[in-house]
Design a protein that fits this description.
By secondary structure, this protein is α/β, with parallel strands linked by helices. It is about 35% helix and about 15% strand. It contains 10 helices and 11 strands. Strands 3-2-1-4-5-6-10 form a 7-stranded parallel sheet, with helices on both faces. Helix 1 links the parallel strand 1 and strand 2. The radius of gyration is 19 Å and the shape is globular.
Length: about 280
C-alpha cells in the first residue's frame, strides 16, 4: 500500500514512517524542510516539499497514493485559538478536499482522547458518547475537525477513519516527563489511559489498511489505565500536592477510554498492555 503522511517529522509521524516502511508499505511524506526529513528519506520514504497551510498544488502531491494519514497538528505552543484552528481544523479540511480531488478517498485522522474531557460519566469514554463542548483549544479544534471530516464522509464519500489517541509515550518520547508538572495538583486516584508509540503505529496502520470501516471512530489505548500517583512513583517524582481548594480534575474517569471497538473491528492488540509492561520490556 502507498500511504501519504503529514506530520512525518513530529512525535507520532517520525515513528510511524519507519514502522510502515518495515511493514512493507510505500510512504510519501509531506514536509516543509528536506533537511529535517533526511533520515526518513534514507530509510526509504519519498519526500515531497510543501506546506499544509499554503499549498495550491496539494492534490498533485497526493495523487497516486492509496491512503492519506494525517498526523500533523498543533498541540503545545499555540498562542491563540485562531492559530490552533488554522492548523488543526482548516488545514485538515483542505487536506481532505485535496485528497478527494486527487481521487484518494481513504483518509486516517489522528484525533485525541482529550475529546472526552469534562464528560460526567463513571466509566471510560466510548466512541459513540455525545461529546460536550471542549474548553481547551486542542480538543475543541480536534472535535471540530472530526465533525468536518464526517460531514465530508456523508456528503462526498471521504472514507474517513478517526483514531482517538490516548496519552502517547515511549520510544524516546519525553511526553510523560513533560506533563508531570501540570499534574501536580490533580487527584492522585485519577486514571489515565496510555498508549505506547509502537501501538499507535500498529493502530494507525490497521486503520489505513482495513477495508469497509469508513466513517468509524476508534479509541487507541493500552489495556490498563494508570493512576496519576503511579505515574509519579514510576518516574521517581515527589508526591503530589493538593491545590488550595482540594484536588483538581476530580472525575477519575474522564481521561480513560474503552477500546473494545478497535479490538473487535481492527483486531488491535497492544504490544504493551500497560506502562509497567513497557518498563519491564525496556521500551520506555
Amino acid at each position: 500500500m502507498k500511504i501519504f503522511i503529514t506530520g512525518a517529522t513530529g512525535k507520532v509521524g517520525s515513528r510511524l514512517v519507519p514502522y510502515l516502511l518495515k511493514q512493507g508499505h510505500s510512504v510519501r511524506i509531506l514536509v516543509r524542510s528536506a533537511e529535517r526529513a533526511l533520515a526518513l528519506k534514507e530509510q526509504g520514504a519519498e519526500v515531497v516539499l510543501g506546506d499544509l497551510l499554503d499549498n495550491e498544488h496539494l492534490s498533485d502531491l497526493i495523487r497516486g497514493v492509496d491512503a492519506v494519514v494525517h498526523t500533523a497538528a498543533q498541540f503545545r505552543g499555540v498562542i491563540s485559538e485562531e492559530a490552533a484552528r488554522k492548523v488543526n481544523l482548516d488545514a485538515t479540511i483542505a487536506l481532505a478536499k485535496a485528497a478527494l480531488e486527487a481521487g484518494v478517498t481513504r483518509f486516517v485522522f489522528t484525533s485525541t482522547s482529550n475529546v472526552y474531557r469534562d464528560l460526567t460519566i463513571n466509566r471510560p469514554g466510548r466512541e459513540d458518547d455525545i461529546l460536550v463542548p471542549a474548553k481547551e483549544i486542542y480538543p475543541k479544534t480536534k472535535i471540530a475537525a472530526e465533525e468536518a471530516l464526517l460531514k465530508l464522509h456523508r456528503e462526498q464519500g471521504l472514507d474517513i477513519r478517526i483514531v482517538r489517541l490516548a496519552f502517547v509515550y515511549g520510544a524516546g518520547d519525553p511526553h510523560i516527563e513533560e506533563v508531570l508538572p501540570y499534574m501536580m495538583n490533580w487527584n492522585p486516584q485519577k486514571k489515565q489511559s496510555m498508549v505506547h508509540h509502537e501501538d499507535v503505529d500498529q493502530a494507525i496502520m490497521l486503520a489505513a489498511i482495513t477495508p469497509g470501516v469508513g466513517g468509524r471512530i476508534y479509541n487507541v489505548a493500552d489495556d490498563y489505565p494508570i493512576e496519576i500517583s503511579e505515574l509519579y512513583k514510576l518516574n521517581k517524582r515527589p508526591e503530589q500536592v493538593p491545590a488550595k481548594d482540594g484536588w483538581l480534575m476530580s472525575n477519575i474517569w474522564e481521561l480513560t477510554v474503552d477500546t473494545e471497538r478497535i479490538k473487535n473491528e481492527l483486531n488491535f492488540q497492544p504490544k504493551y498492555p500497560s506502562v509497567y509492561a513497557a518498563r519491564d520490556m525496556g521500551a520506555l
